[in-house]
Amino acid sequence: xxxxxxxxxxxxxxxxxLTTEEFISTLVSRWHLPRARLIVLSDPHYRSPxxxx
Length: 53
Description:
The chain is α+β, with helices and mostly antiparallel strands. 21% of the residues lie in helices and 26% in strands. The chain contains 1 helix and 3 strands; from the N terminus they run E-E-H-E. The protein has one helix at residues 21-31; strands at 2-4, 9-14, 38-42. The protein has a 3-stranded mixed beta sheet with strand order 1-2-3, with no helix packed on it. A hairpin with a 4-residue loop joins strand 1 (2-4) and strand 2 (9-14). It is globular, with a radius of gyration of 12 Å. The relative contact order is 0.27. The model has no long low-confidence stretch (mean pLDDT 89).
């Protein structure tokens, strides 16, 4: 998670498998993130195991 000072937003980079609305909503709730100021992108550097969770 990064905060971007230039536009006062949070940047969350995730494995593509984790970019589901359910997972993102859980993070927003637990971390008390302002959803309107959150940017979520997938990043090839972050890869979860091929096995299901």
